[in-house]
Amino acid sequence: MENKLGLGVSFETILDEHAHHSVSLITVYRFSSNFTIAYAPGILRVAEESAVAYQFAQHFEFAYEISVGEFHIGPQLDLGVEDEGVHYMLGIHFGIDF
After folding, report:
1. What is the pLDDT along the chain (98 residues), one digit of tens a residue?
2. Cβ–Cβ contacts within 10 Å for residue 1, how many?
């Protein structure tokens, strides 16, 4: 049993009334119990009607991973903090170990 620290890059798109796209550098901590906690500070691109704005955003991700070879997949809860407020997402985590 061991705990691992990892780094990664995240590309995220939020489909709502505005177009939100973000690029983040992720720091991931994997626990031996298959739970992961990730912190992802990054840049959020928000497009509204005729204007585009960029802002700092932070995401905190909590996931349970099931390993299949070098892949891992499982349920994920995401907490995003940005200028417009806070958002929550439920989703599926998919990752590849290199």
Report:
1. 456 666 666 666 665 555 667 778 888 888 888 898 988 888 888 777 778 888 888 989 899 999 888 888 999 998 888 887 888 888 888 877 76
2. 5
Tell me how far apart the alpha carbons of residues 38 and 30 are, in angstroms, rounded to a whole number. Answer: 9
pTM of the model: 0.72
91 touches 79 (CB < 8 A): no
The conformation of residue 34, written as its DSSP 8-state character, comes to S
8 Å CB contact between 40 and 57: no
Decide if 11 contacts 23 (C-beta within 8 A): yes
Cα 66 to Cα 6, 23, 70, 79: the distances in Å are 16, 25, 11, 21
Which residues lie closer than 8 Å to 5 by C-beta, 6 or more apart? 27, 28, 29, 30
Residue count of the chain, please give it. Answer: 98
